[in-house]
Design goal:
- The protein is an alpha+beta fold and 272 residues long.
- The protein has 2 domains: 137 residues, Roll (2,3-Dihydroxybiphenyl 1,2-Dioxygenase, domain 1), CATH 3.10.180; 115 residues, 2,3-Dihydroxybiphenyl 1,2-Dioxygenase, domain 1 (Roll).
- It contains 5 helices and 16 strands.
- The strands form 2 sheets. The protein has an 8-stranded mixed β-sheet with strand order 2-3-4-1-5-8-7-6, covered by helices on one side.
- It is globular and about 40 Å long.
Length: 272
C-alpha cells in the first residue's frame, strides 16, 4: 500500500454525516502560535485557508477551513508561555480521561487537560516517554479534519524519533496500534496500523535526530506542487528546513513558518 492509499483509507474526504474516527487514528492537527493574526495570514496565503473562531474554551482559537470544510486549528499561546511552536496531531479516543490515564501509566506525561472544548469534544495534550508531543481528541460535535489528502489539507503524520523499538510499545499499549514494518537493514521505519490500516508512521533516525527539537511528530500537508509551495513559504517569511527530495511517496520539502513551526509539504505520487 502506498502512503497515498494509506492516507485515503485513514481519512475522510468529507466529514459530513461521518462518525468519530476509530481510536488511534490521527483526526485533527493544531498549532499554538504567538501571533494569531499573522499566522492566519501566512497559512491563508499558503494553503488558501479561511478561518472561523472558536471554541472559546481554548482561548483565542480559530479553525481553518478549506472550501468550507474544517481541516486544522490555530490557537494563541498565553503571554509568557515559552512552549515550542509546533504542529500537534490529535489522535482519536472514545474516552480522553481513560486514555490520559493510560498515557501516564505507560510512562508518558499529560501536559494539558483533559478539558472539555465546549460542545466540540474533550481533549488533552500529552508527551510520549521520549518527549514527543501529541494530542487526544474525544469527539462530540467536532469530528476532526473533514478533508484529508487534498491540496491544503493534512496528508500524513510521522513520529520522528531516535529508534522505533524504544517508543513503539508505548503507542501500542495506549492506542492498540499494530505495526507494519518496512524491512531494511539501514532504515528504521514502521507504519502504525488501526484495524489493519496504516494511519501514521514512525521513523527512527538515530543521531540524525535534530538536537533543537528532539523526538517530534511531523505533519505533512498535501500541495499541488511541493517546489512552488516551498518558494511561497519563503516569500511569506518562512524558510526551508530540508530541500526538496523524492521518494516512493512523492516529492516533499520540509519548511518552517515565520514563528518556526516545522511541517512538510508533499505532492503525493498519485501513480505510486
Amino acid at each position: 500500500m502506498t502512503m497515498t492509499e494509506a492516507r485515503a483509507s485513514a481519512g475522510r474526504r468529507d466529514g459530513a454525516g461521518a462518525g468519530p474516527s476509530t481510536p488511534g487514528t490521527p483526526c485533527w492537527v493544531s498549532l499554538m502560535a504567538h501571533g494569531l493574526e499573522a499566522t492566519q495570514e501566512f497559512y491563508g496565503a499558503l494553503f488558501g485557508w479561511e478561518f472561523r473562531p472558536g471554541p472559546e474554551q481554548l482561548g483565542p482559537y480559530v479553525r481553518a477551513l478549506l472550501d468550507g470544510h474544517e481541516v486544522a486549528g490555530i490557537g494563541q499561546l498565553p503571554p509568557g508561555r515559552q512552549l515550542p511552536i509546533a504542529w500537534t496531531p490529535y489522535l482519536a479516543t472514545d474516552d480522553a480521561d481513560a486514555t490520559a490515564e493510560a498515557v501516564r501509566h505507560c510512562g508518558g506525561t499529560v501536559g494539558v487537560g483533559p478539558i472539555t472544548a465546549g460542545r466540540a469534544g474533550r481533549m488533552a495534550v500529552a508527551l510520549d516517554p521520549t518527549g514527543a508531543v501529541f494530542g487526544l481528541w474525544q469527539a462530540a460535535r467536532h469530528l476532526g479534519s473533514a478533508v484529508v489528502g487534498e491540496p491544503g489539507a493534512p496528508a500524513w503524520y510521522e513520529l520522528v524519533t531516535r529508534e522505533t523499538s524504544g517508543v513503539f510499545p508505548f503507542y501500542r499499549n495506549v492506542f492498540g496500534f499494530t505495526e507494519e514494518a518496512v524491512v531494511s537493514a539501514d532504515f528504521d521505519y514502521l507504519r502504525l496500523c488501526v484495524d489493519g490500516r496504516p494511519v501514521a508512521s514512525m521513523h527512527g533516525v538515530g543521531d540524525a535526530l535534530p538536537r533543537d527539537t528532539g523526538p517530534h511528530w511531523m505533519t505533512y500537508f498535501e500541495v499541488a506542487d511541493a517546489d512552488e509551495a516551498a518558494d511561497r513559504v519563503v516569500e511569506l517569511g518562512g524558510h526551508v528546513v530540508r530541500p526538496a527530495w523524492d521518494d516512493a511517496y512523492g516529492r516533499m520539502v520540509t519548511v518552517a513558518d515565520p514563528e518556526g513551526a516545522v511541517f512538510t509539504v508533499v505532492r503525493s505520487d498519485r501513480e505510486g
